């Protein structure tokens, strides 16, 4: 058990060490989300009606949730590369904890997500976002985001191990994750969507987590959203962590 | 505890319909270099992966230093080092960071892992590049770093999977010298290669493998002896008829001579007097000779004789695709 903890931390440290040296990934975490915030706020913002909130207040929780989900792509792309380049073979020939490679990978996503959440919140505040709730609630929101991001890392770990190339990882991300984040309450109120889409958006876990963050940051009605988000995150971990571990064993055992 | 470092019995591994290993038996003594020679797709890499506990065999047993690769895998991993044909180092980490990480994953504290990393970098002539990301390294430097990573915990058994594939001749020579140094220190090495020259130079015992089966085993000399005797090679002057040369020379040996690209080849049992007799026969037939030589068979000849095809050094079929 001690071995699992230390090895996980060593792998996480390795992932964070290499981050500043792979600038394309760092740009993905920092510049790109800022660009999306500005585009939505200033290009679409004026046309989207969000009763009860200014669009910037409405937007920031949504776009941060989307960005947190995408944070796990570091795991997907990183694992994919490690398998292809034989680094997984090296790890598996070492007397280290079997679970540490996946554990360390997903753990380092928490650090990168903390960074991108901070950057987006600062950007948000600069363009007019303001918390309507207490400090502990705001922090609870960040914690919930990190939990959700962590669960999504396990889903993306599975995708990264499944895919044959990094291009495949990217297209799965864009085809599966992008629409899922858009057909939710992240950017527009679900009431504005056509009936079928709206029905889907209302049960979409992204809607639940976005509404939970709006509750914790803006004081929106709580509903079951906070608990719902926690349950969804735990379910995603419970489903995809074993799948990713099984896939890791197979991918490494080619 | 036997003095066998590697004991393999009846090892079988399938990938779908492909029998990558088809009942391999093999022994290697401690302190020896066992060369596993074969073309791409022969099953060499699969064998190394089974021994390095990366994949489980479908049948048969394999023991390394008396540890069973399946049942004692965790303990065995403390004893082995693996360097592969795809230099498995993190491109975005520096040489020192890579080695320190590996040392720490062996359970070393950071400080001593770092010290060991510096020691290895110095030994492999990488000290100047210690704090550069390895993506800036040349192919030869990466292979040396990969080998250094395999040596972090001073393993008594080392698996080298095609350590010099794709390297330029100079880097290959320097890597060979490094491997010879390790062997001199008593490390047991299992080396796979598709380069006959490499097996000839490094290996004490050579096992020739093709289509997942062991087709021959012995020292380089023993394998060459199996072909029987020496090779006489005759290059004729322009205009001389090679078929006439084949006719007059074939009487000297059990098997008829062959001709390829104007080079006439003949296997002879005895070295003694062969050149004189060949020259006499050729000049009696009025055939001009440009060059004539006796040579020991190379491992290329061995491979051709054993498998019926030449060793494919640039085979297009990657072993991985069988997986």
Please, could you describe this protein's structure?
The complex is a heterodimer of chains A (254) and B (323). Chain A is mainly α and 254 residues long. Chain A has one domain. Helices cover 78% and strands 0% of the residues of chain A. Chain B is an alpha/beta fold. Chain B is elongated, with a radius of gyration of 23 Å. Chain B folds into two domains: 4-224, Rossmann fold, CATH 3.40.50; 229-296, Alpha-Beta Plaits, CATH 3.30.70. The longest helix of chain B is centred in the middle third of the chain and has 16 residues, at 169-184. A six-stranded mixed sheet of chain B has the order 6-7-8-3-9-10, with helices on both faces. Classes of the chains: A mainly alpha (254), B alpha/beta (323). Chains A and B meet through α1 and α6 of A and β6 and α3 of B.
What is the H level of CATH, i.e. the homologous superfamily of the largest domain in chain B? P-loop containing nucleotide triphosphate hydrolases
Would you list the SSEs of chain B in sequence order as H and E? EEEHEEHEHHHEHEHEEHEHEEHEH
- Structural class based on helices, strands and sheet pairing of chain B: alpha/beta
Low-confidence stretches of chain B: 313-323
Classify the beta-strand content of chain B into a percent band: 25-35%
By CATH, the architecture of the largest domain in chain B is named 3-Layer(aba) Sandwich
CATH topology of the largest domain in chain B: Rossmann fold
Strand content of chain A: under 5%
The level 1 CATH classification of the largest domain in chain B is: Alpha Beta
Q: Flag low-confidence runs of chain A.
A: none
- Please give the count of helices of chain B: 11
Order of helices and strands of chain A: HHHHHHHHHHHH
**Count of helix runs of chain A:** 12
Residues in helices of chain B, as a percent range: 25-40%
Mean pLDDT of chain B: 85
Report the biggest beta sheet of chain B as strand number plus sense, adding barrel if it closes: 6 strands, mixed
């Amino acid at each position: 058990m001690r071995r699992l903890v230390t090895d996980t931390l060593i792998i996480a440290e390795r992932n964070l060490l290499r981050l500043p040296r792979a600038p394309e990934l760092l740009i993905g975490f920092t510049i790109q989300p800022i660009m999306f915030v500005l585009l939505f706020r200033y290009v679409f913002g004026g046309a989207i009606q969000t009763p009860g909130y200014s669009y910037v207040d409405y937007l920031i929780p949504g776009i941060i949730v989307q960005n947190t989900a995408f944070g796990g792509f570091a795991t997907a792309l990183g694992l994919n590369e490690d398998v292809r380049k034989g680094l997984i073979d090296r790890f598996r020939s070492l007397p280290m904890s079997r679970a540490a490679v996946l554990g360390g990978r997903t753990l380092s996503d928490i650090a990168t997500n903390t960074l991108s959440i901070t950057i987006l919140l600062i950007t948000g505040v600069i363009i007019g976002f303001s918390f309507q709730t207490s400090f502990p609630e705001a922090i609870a929101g960040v914690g919930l985001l990190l939990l959700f991001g962590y669960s999504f890392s396990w889903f993306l770990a599975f995708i990264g191990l499944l895919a044959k190339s990094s291009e495949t990882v990217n297209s799965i991300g864009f085809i599966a994750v992008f629409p899922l984040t858009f057909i939710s309450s992240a950017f527009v109120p679900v009431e504005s969507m056509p009936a079928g889409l709206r029905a889907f958006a209302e049960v979409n876990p992204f809607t639940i987590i976005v509404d939970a963050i709006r509750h914790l940051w803006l004081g929106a009605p709580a509903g079951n959203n906070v608990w719902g988000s926690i349950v969804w995150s735990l379910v995603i971990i419970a489903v995809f962590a074993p799948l990713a571990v099984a896939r890791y064993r197979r991918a490494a055992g080619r | 505890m036997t003095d066998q470092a590697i004991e393999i019995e009846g090892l079988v591994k399938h990938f779908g319909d492909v029998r990558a290993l088809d009942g391999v038996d093999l022994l290697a003594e401690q302190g020896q270099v066992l060369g596993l020679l074969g073309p791409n797709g022969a099953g060499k890499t699969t064998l190394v992966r089974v021994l390095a506990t990366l994949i489980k065999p479908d049948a048969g047993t394999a023991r390394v230093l008396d540890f069973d690769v399946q049942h004692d895998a965790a303990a065995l991993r403390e004893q082995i080092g693996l360097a592969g044909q795809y230099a498995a180092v993190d491109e975005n980490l520096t040489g020192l960071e890579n080695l320190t990480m590996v040392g720490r994953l062996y359970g070393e504290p950071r400080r001593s892992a770092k010290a060991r990393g510096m020691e290895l970098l110095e030994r492999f002539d990488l000290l100047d590049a210690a704090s550069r990301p390895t993506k800036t390294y040349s192919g030869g430097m990466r292979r040396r770093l990969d080998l250094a990573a395999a040596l972090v915990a001073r393993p008594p058994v080392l698996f080298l999977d095609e350590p010099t594939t794709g390297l330029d001749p100079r880097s290959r020579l320097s890597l060979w010298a490094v491997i010879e140094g390790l062997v001199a220190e008593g490390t047991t090495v299992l080396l796979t290669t598709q380069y006959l020259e490499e097996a000839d130079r490094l290996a004490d015992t050579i096992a020739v493998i093709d289509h997942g089966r062991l087709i021959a085993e012995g020292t380089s000399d023993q394998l060459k002896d199996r072909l029987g005797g020496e090779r006489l090679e005759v290059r004729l002057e322009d205009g001389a008829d090679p078929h006439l040369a084949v006719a007059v020379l074939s009487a000297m040996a059990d098997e008829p001579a062959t001709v390829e690209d104007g080079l006439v080849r003949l296997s002879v049992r005895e070295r003694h007097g062969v050149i004189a007799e060949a020259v006499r026969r050729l000049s009696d037939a009025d055939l001009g000779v440009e060059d004539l030589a006796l040579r020991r068979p190379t491992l290329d000849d061995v491979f051709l004789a054993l498998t019926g095809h030449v060793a494919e050094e640039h085979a297009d079929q990657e072993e991985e695709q069988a997986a």
